[in-house]
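Quiz preparation item.
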């Protein structure tokens, strides 16, 4: 039976950086690598909110991207 082993975890913060000429939002993102593999969703969200508060732009969303080795 195949198993999935968590290899890497990243957190992507998406910011609303303004509006374009059509009035649609412009999004910019920042990726943070090496998120603790055992971090809970609440811990990731808490870290993202803290980091987002340091930005001049409004934090729009938070994504967690995990990579697995299938063995």
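Solution:
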């Amino acid at each position: 039976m195949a198993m999935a082993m968590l290899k890497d975890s990243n957190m992507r913060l998406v910011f609303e950086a303004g509006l374009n000429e059509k009035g649609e939002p412009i999004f910019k993102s920042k990726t943070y690598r090496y998120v603790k593999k055992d971090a809970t969703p609440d811990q990731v969200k808490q870290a993202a909110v803290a980091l987002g508060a340091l930005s001049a732009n409004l934090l729009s969303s938070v994504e967690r991207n995990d990579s697995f080795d299938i063995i």
